[in-house]
Design a protein that fits this description.
The chain is an alpha/beta fold. 24% of the residues lie in helices and 22% in strands. The chain has one domain: UDP N-Acetylglucosamine Acyltransferase, domain 1, CATH 2.160.10.10. A hairpin with a 4-residue loop joins strand 14 and strand 15.
Length: 180
């Protein structure tokens, strides 16, 4: 390997650490809440960041688009190029062209704890990604799923549940016991 290439690689690694700390520092002053250990990748777009909350040990992926009023839980891994839509086009009327109907109201997106979102995922407005969910790469997330789901596809579908049946039954028993 040429000396120039080695120097460029070392420079990138050094600059990457400083840049990462600077992005965190900026987000600390912009976001409504940010955990002590978070990673905001390069070119992440989050507007003013005013109403964004991100928990401990979570990250926003490279080139991700995160709208205001998004809540990201603890231990969330987000791949590159994820796009969360805050709203959509109105299409209710057929007597007016769709382009002239405006937009729907913005909806809050909530991402639970211990979630893995693969690369190039697109989320429709108002999604709630439950705890322990894995969203496969290039998924078009159009609906919500139960905790510990593995989802994928365009449009998305449930591929499997990460918990064994007896674990799910135990959780239900705990939930029922705590309600009584």
């Amino acid at each position: 390997m040429a000396l120039r290439t080695i120097c460029q690689e070392k420079s990138r690694k050094l600059g990457g650490g400083i840049s990462r700390k600077f992005r965190y520092w900026c987000c600390k002053h912009l976001f409504k809440k940010i955990g002590k250990v978070c990673n905001i990748e390069r070119h992440a777009f989050f507007g003013s960041g005013k109403d964004i909350e991100i928990g401990e040990f979570s990250g926003i992926g490279l080139n991700a688009h995160i709208p205001k009023d998004t809540i990201i839980g603890d231990y969330v891994m987000m791949g590159p190029n994820c796009f969360i839509y805050p709203n959509s086009h109105k299409t209710d009327r057929t007597d007016i062209p769709m382009v002239k109907q405006g937009f729907t109201e913005s909806k809050r997106t909530i991402i639970g704890n211990d979630v893995w979102i693969g690369r190039d995922v697109i989320m429709s407005p108002g999604r709630h990604i439950s705890d322990g969910t894995i969203v496969g790469m290039r998924t078009v997330l159009t609906k919500d799923f139960p905790p510990y789901s593995v989802v994928g596809g365009a449009p998305c579908r449930l591929l499997k549940n990460r918990k064994q049946k007896n674990e799910i039954d135990e959780d239900r028993n705990i939930d029922i016991a705590t309600r009584n």
